[in-house]
Inverse folding.
């Protein structure tokens, strides 16, 4: 079991880093919105693409922070019955918690399995490494070809105002959901509500 916890440790680190990244995106989003308010009211020049960036940023915030939420057992759910069973029948509560976590892992796995083809289809529209059906062929200049391919990507936003490729957002969704699936599976194996301990009585990883 200690070996399983040690294998789990890198995923704990990744979830914590992703959570911190999501928090950084929140700060950047707040700064952007304040800049837009200032520009609108004092310069009469609203920033373009703020609405699109807010929607885009929310995807990264939610799915970067979700794995750490799952890891810390802070995902919103109705666990009144489970809490009652922990006081009256701990063994039954342990089995029930594993069943719930297994169901959650299966559900997250199905979502990840559904999102992955959407990500691959989205990034294939860019033709980063393949010759496009339409448009200019690769020139051999890495930066020029990358910029041209980036402009070909399936995009989100308003043309002429702000556009961004969809694939980074879909990759963020896949990452967050896949990490949640993995963390739930570790919770099933470890069989406790806080599986970040290496040994009983030791500090969390």
């Amino acid at each position: 079991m200690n070996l399983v916890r040690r294998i789990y440790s890198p995923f704990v680190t990744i979830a914590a880093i992703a959570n911190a990244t999501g928090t950084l995106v929140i700060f950047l989003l707040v700064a952007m919105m304040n800049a837009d308010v200032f520009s609108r009211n004092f310069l009469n020049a609203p920033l373009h693409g703020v609405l699109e960036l807010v929607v885009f940023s929310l995807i990264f915030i939610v799915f970067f922070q979700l794995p750490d939420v799952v890891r810390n057992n802070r995902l919103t759910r109705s666990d009144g019955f489970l809490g009652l069973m922990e006081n009256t029948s701990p063994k039954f509560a342990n089995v029930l918690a594993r069943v719930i976590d297994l169901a959650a892992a299966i559900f997250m796995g199905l979502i990840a399995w559904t999102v992955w083809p959407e990500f691959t289809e989205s990034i294939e529209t860019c033709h980063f490494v393949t010759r496009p059906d339409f448009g200019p062929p690769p020139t051999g200049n890495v930066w020029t070809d990358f910029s041209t391919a980036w402009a070909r990507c399936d995009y989100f936003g308003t043309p002429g105002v702000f556009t961004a490729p969809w694939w980074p957002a879909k990759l963020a969704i896949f990452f967050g959901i896949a990490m949640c699936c993995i963390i739930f599976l570790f919770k099933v194996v470890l069989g406790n509500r806080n599986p970040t301990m290496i040994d009983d009585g030791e500090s969390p990883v």
